[in-house]
Input
Amino acid sequence: MMTDVSDEELALSPEGIGHGLSGGAWEHYWDFDIGSELEPETESTSSSDEKYERVGSSFSAGSESVERINLSYNHGLASFFSRLSLKDIDQSMFVFVLNKSLAEKIRCIRAYANEYQLQEISQPQFSIDTGQNDPDFIPVKFSDAEVSDVWVRIRPVRASAFSISFSSQTPKRVVPSRETP
Output
């Protein structure tokens, strides 16, 4: 698991994909009181109070140019909490948030889970939304240079968020099925 990094350590680290690739995974847990009524959002319950817990990280060697960047979410086998499963993704909505210089280089986004391609989004199907972005909601520290590039959202051309619906689009198997005896 990734350790906390001080601002001084960030300033000493070389920037850019050529110096290394790293990633992190965060989870947010909601505390639902089943018997209570939903309360309207107040200052004390606003999204700025949301707490994320770091649950994973990854590191790899850098490269001056890359054909693709793989993002993944996984967790250990033993856990006290329930985890995201394929059925949880059905009927979900999502938006990508990243810096503008990287967003401008994206030509295609593919989502995979459990040996299935869930969705493929090509460049004509998405747009880069530069309006009202605030990097403060991202639960990780970046250096001043890293956040100097404007943060943007990648959205569908005709909607505010992408969605996955298994009844509308059947996931495509990408690994041959193995017969069981």
Summary: Confidence is low (pLDDT under 50) at residues 40-48. Strands lie at 21-27, 53-60, 92-94, 96-99, 108-113, 116-122, 126-129, 151-156, 162-164, 172-173. The CA atoms of residues 47 and 137 lie 8 Å apart.
